[in-house]
Structure formats: structure tokens, C-alpha cells
Amino acid sequence: MSLLITNIGELTTHDPELGTLHDAAIVVGDTVRWAGPAAKAPDADRVIDARGAAVIPGFVDSHAHLVFAGDRAPEFAARMAGEPYTGGGIRTTMAATRAASDETLRANVERLVQESLRQGTTTMEIKSGYGLNVPDEARSLRIAAEFTTETTYLGAHVTPPGIEPDDYVRLVTGEMLDHCAAHAKWVDVFCERGAFDVDQARAVLTAGIARGLQPRIHANQLTEGGGIRLAVELGCASADHCTHLSASDVDALAGSDTVATLLPGAEFSTRSPYPDARTLLDAGATVALATDCNPGSSYTSSMSFCLALAVREMRMTPAEALWAATAGGARALRRPDIGHLGVGARADLVILDAPSAVHLAYRPGVPLAHTVLHKGVPQ
Ligand code: NIG
Ligand code: FE
């Protein structure tokens, strides 16, 4: 089966040769077969008339914590009344997650994945991290793997009650890893004051690497610590949050292959200063945008909301923000097959209810995903 989408007003491909096309068309199977001027489009089995709308690659949400139960609306309300965010609520969600059935957890992930897909997100990374014991971390990852190949072992989210931090790190790098490694592609750690320090984070990531997992890290969300330099030292695919950066952190990221993944939904929902995207971009770092969807610090599944925040609050141009939310996320997941619409890419795309992709930031909060194709299939 082939599908021709024609009469595209603006086609953002993020392909170095194709660039952004106007009056364009694209032909897809489960991958992109052809893209170019509408007048030269080859025939296909089925045709969609985009009526002058813009088409973009599907969003790649490279950072999400979807396996959890319950929510923390009262904590959010308290924060908006002046309480600080400390990450302490992670233990509240841990208790609700441990108490939930597999069916409840699975239904929650399904709900959030569908909510994301409707808004144009065609790839999601999903982390564990609310089980914080061997059986609940392992089942979190088994459930995550039902929805994505981008599964991340985040046993080292925080130390749960009743165990000393160093003992917990031994568990995370030992028995827990034994039960989780088979279900995960990535290993992650929350490197932060109050969570895990740089030495503990190094132990967690190197243990994961030794078991074939690829490293990524939560770094410098609440304070400026050594997490960014550790990310670069270990060749992490991505350092996520990057809210508090020193000049040497920026240089380290710019001189490395580690993507700086910015999560402005977290700054919005914790009323914190936004990360300095402009300095990172001007220094030459690769920047991605993701939702950080989780019940505590950022309960949004909307990539277009994050993109709008990045444009308005972080001085990214609309084009930079769109790249970061698609191709940037793909880099952060080391996935050359997504985030762009070059020939051979996975046919993940969004026909917008708008004539240009600028509208994603220009019309914040408006649901602009008209038709979403995942692997070439309209959803
Ligand atoms: O990425 N920072 C650590 N983890 C999550 C928040 C988790 C929570 O508050 O439940 C984050 O923001
Ligand atoms: Fe996170």
C-alpha cells in the first residue's frame, strides 16, 4: 500500500537535501518513499488532499515517566501557592504505583500514549522509576515495553524509605539491574542534591553500560552539580533538564555528542527559571525538547505546548524548537530513522490544521494535529 499526501502548503522534512518544501507532496508506505513538488508526485494507491496545510515529522518525546498510578494535583496547587518543588513527591507516587494492579498501570500508560499520539507524538521514551524495588521496577519496564522500544531503567530515581542510599545503589546496580536489564534499552539516574550524587550516578550508569544498556541522565534540574560533566565523560546520549548550567557545562555539551534535552514543562509546573537554550544553541550544542510527562513536575503530554514555551520563554526560533521536538529527540534516542521525513525515514508525520509550522508556537494551546500518521497509517 502506498499513500500520497498532496497539496501540502509547507512540508518540513529536516532532511538536508530536501529542506522545507512548498506546494509539496509526499508518498509513504511504512517509510517515506518520495517527497518533492506536488506537480511531480508519482501515483499511489490512496491520496490525501492536505488542502494547503503544513506537514511536519511526528514529535519524538524522548523523556517521559508514564508508568505510575495516582496524581499529585494537591502538590501542584500547593506549589502554585508558594511551596517549592523538591522531588519529595516521588515517594507519594511510588506508594500509589506499588499498590496498583498491572491493569491499572497499563491502562494509565495506554491513556497517556494515546493522548500523546492524538497530539502528534509518534515516538515516546518511557521510564520506570516509581517502583523503586525489584518487582515493581521490573514490572514497570515490562509494561513500558508493551508500548515502546525506548524503555529506560530509572531505578535510581530517589532512594525509597527504609534503605540507606549506598545500599540502595548496590541494589540498583545489582539484583534490580539483573531483573530489569532485559526489558530496557537505556539506563538513567536522577543526579541531584537529595537524589544521587555524581559518584553514585557514575556507579549506576557504568553498571547499566556493563549490561548493554545505553546511558542518559537527569542532570542539573534543581542545582548546578557535576551531572553534565559526568554525562559527557560517559558518552550519555542525552543530559536532561540542564536548567542550571555553568559556562564549562555549556562548553562540555557543545564539544560532545551528548544532546541537551530541555523540559520546559517542568519549569512551567514548578515555577522555576527556564533553561538557557539560546546559550546552548549559540555555543553549538544539540538541543532536544521533550515533555518530561510525569505526575509531579510536569503533567503534560503536549509537545506543542513545550515547543511554544521554548519559543516564548527560551528564545528558540519556531524552526529551532520544531527541530528540537522532532530531530533533536531522535538524536537523544540515537534513532536515525525518525524525527525527519527524508526518503527511508519511518512514515511518522502530522498534517497540521495550519498553513505553517510556526502556528505551533503562534497558536499555543490549540490542538493543531489534524491527521497523524504512524508508520504510514492514519491514526
Ligand atoms: O524529571 N526529576 C526527577 N524526576 C521527574 C519528576 C518526578 C516527580 O516529581 O514525580 C522529573 O522532573
Ligand atoms: Fe524526568
In words, what does this structure look like?
The chain is α/β, with parallel strands linked by helices and 379 residues long. The chain has 2 domains: 96 residues, Roll (Urease, subunit C, domain 1), CATH 2.30.40.10; 275 residues, Metal-dependent hydrolases (TIM Barrel). It is built from 14 helices and 18 strands. The strands form 3 sheets. Strands 1, 2, 3, 4, 5, 16, 17 and 18 form an 8-stranded mixed sheet that branches. Strands 8, 9, 10, 11, 12, 13, 14 and 15 form an 8-stranded parallel sheet that branches. Strand 10, helix 7 and strand 11 form a beta-alpha-beta unit. Helix 3 runs parallel beside helix 4. It starts with a strand and ends with a strand. The relative contact order is 0.17. The model has no long low-confidence stretch (mean pLDDT 98).
Question: Can you give keywords for this protein?
Answer:
Urease, subunit C, domain 1, alpha/beta, TIM Barrel, binds fe (iii) ion, binds N-(iminomethyl)-L-glutamic acid
Quick structural gist:
Keywords: Cytoplasm, Histidine metabolism, Hydrolase, Iron, Metal-binding, Zinc. With 379 residues, this protein is an alpha/beta fold.
CATH superfamily of the largest domain: Metal-dependent hydrolases
Q: What is the CATH third-level topology name of the largest domain?
A: TIM Barrel
Mean pLDDT: 98
Named CATH architecture of the largest domain:
Alpha-Beta Barrel
**Content-based structural category:** alpha/beta
CATH class of the largest domain reads: Alpha Beta
Helix-residue proportion: 25-40%
User: What characterizes the major β-sheet?
Assistant: 8 strands, mixed
What general form does the structure show? globular
Radius of gyration: 20 Å
Q: Tell me the fraction of residues in β-strands, as a range.
A: 15-25%
The number of helical runs is 14
* Domain tally: 2
How far do the termini sit from each other?
Answer: 16 Å
Subcellular location: Cytoplasm
Domain Amidohydrolase-related: 239-354
Function: Catalyzes the hydrolytic cleavage of the carbon-nitrogen bond in imidazolone-5-propanoate to yield N-formimidoyl-L-glutamate. It is the third step in the universal histidine degradation pathway.
InterPro entries: Amidohydro-rel (IPR006680), HutI (IPR005920), Metal-dep_hydrolase_composite (IPR011059), Metal_Hydrolase (IPR032466)
